[in-house]
Fold this protein.
Amino acid sequence: MEKRKNLQPFILFLSVFLPLPFFGQDTIPVLQAEAENNITTDTVIPQDSPKESRIFEPVASSIDTTQKINYWTITSQTGEMIPAVPDTALTDYFNRTNAEGTGISVAYLGNLGLPMESRVFFEREDRSEFLFFDPFWAYAKRPDKFLFINTKVPYTNVSYQTAGSRQTKEERLQALLTLNSGKKLNVGTHVDYLYGRGFYNSQAAKHTDWVFFSNYLSDRHRLHLFINPSSYTNAENGGLDNDNWISHPEQMDSRPTQPREYGTKFGNTWNYNKGFRAFLNYRYNLGFERDSTFIPVSSLIYTADYTKKSRRFYAQDTANVNAFYNYTDYLYPLRKDKTPNDSTSYDSFKNTFALSLREGFSDWAKFDLTAFITHEFKNFTMMGTIPDTINIEPDTVVAFPSYKKNLNSLYIGGELAKQNGKILRYSAYGSLGLSGYNAGDIHLSGNIETRIPFLKDTASIKANACFKNLSPTFYENNYISRYFKWNNHFEKVNKTHIGGELNIPHTKTKLGVGVENIKNYIYFDKDGYPKQYGDNIQVIAATLQQNFRLGALSWDNQLVYQKSGKQDIIPLPDVCVYSSMYLQFKIAKVLTIQMGANAHYWTKYKSPAYEPATQQFKLQDETETGNYPLINGYINAHLKQTRFFIEYYNLGAMFISPPDYFSIPHYPVNPPGIRMGLSVDWIN
């Protein structure tokens, strides 16, 4: 009987998204171009997942002067230009504005702007040097993910979304303004302001992200500039003190009228992350004139990359004693005084010099060949420590001395790429740590793609492989605070990954497979401390993306099947699904409407918990989440240069019982409610 209850949400999910009209009839693949739903004339290419290589795309040798606006990204090492296009698709626009829309399946703290982790293992990146920023990967701006622009006319885009009442309002405003001064110089700014008050107690989030960018492109000189000051502030509540507030409210003694009145483990406690990044890439091309066209032969490259980040964990006590104090009595045995007030900072300056031989300047130059050398200086500052033998009175505020550590690293490496072939493209990358903290580190990766005729179209087959032997990050080995202290001597982490992908545009089918073997994997245990598992762990995954259309009815699907060889170390749901079904039609030939419902679903597993004192996801073995479809109803619309939507979020909570809409243990997603969004382009 219990098994049948557990299957009810899955059966409901199938009943909603596997309607009878799709069986017993021929399904018609989606042949209509996505450009019909675009604001601009560019064709939309979905952004790569965080872990996916982006070097399959051809390297831009020049700007397409026939386009009003050109977009591209750059590689962070050498500044290679990779053609790209903005996210201007109507389909799934509303979903991409939600936290759930940042990946196929993500685990997060319930409110927009709060820390998150992908449930799909191959979407996760390696930990960065400043791991406190890692949970904000979906919001952070990076030069290798940012769209640089060259435009013939001034271009502005403004996007706004909102949800909730005055007390719980969730808002995000994004604005882009860019223009050219002549054909060669472009300047612009992008602002991303997010403010979510939170539907639950002490759950607010506030992000301020500015990007000032510029590029100068000529035959001889290429320059890219990226400056990004940012701050991410979020309240911490430790999750609900009783999950029955959501799943079985009838069992609670009190009956609050608003979710903000539900009990939480603590409140009025904050994490404040502040960052600044300045990135400059300059390339001088050597070459010759052929038929009045400049042909680059080689390039001299310099990249400067400065990063500064800091993090503070603190509480603001009021007349009442913060519940965090009692909570920390047993959770954080190292606590020296009552006031949470941890801080740490990091800065890095990286210089890269490279020499590149360009593809195509001669018949024998069949590929790009680049060699580089990189030096990085890193500085870490943490709270100092005091002898455990000192007797400190409970109400005494202790001044902690600071602890500083400077590290240097020197790398050499190279890249080989053939990106302009019509049938075969390939690339290879390799780097070796010569000296300093990362001496002996190895990173090798390779990709190959071929295209074959298929159903009057062209299908592509890709294969990729990667080998990494990397030193643990500084914070994985060393950390000092009022609540945690560790001094580890972890071994290098060894990762071997092999994968492939089949893409058939004619049938809108994309199938991918991958396997990764990890030795010396570093994770955070149930107590919130980093640990290393010395043996091998293998993770396998298969992904399927399949879209259908039957007349005005569309059905878009993404499915991931994955298996962890050590579920108690790398817990993963076996299946993650995203499915969206909608009717698409036009009104008065100018207003496109998509009306339907979507759902996110994952099988039950012991999801990692969240540790606010380090902002890391850690293991837990008490609570399972999943087997509950998060269903939303929506109307998407497109009129000329405007997209807008209205969505009823978490619709399933109104008829699924019990409504276990927890994203991770003790952190529910937002309750049912209306969300709205708008995006407008101005091309003058």
In short: The first helix runs from residue 2 to 17. The CA atoms of residues 308 and 347 lie 4 Å apart.
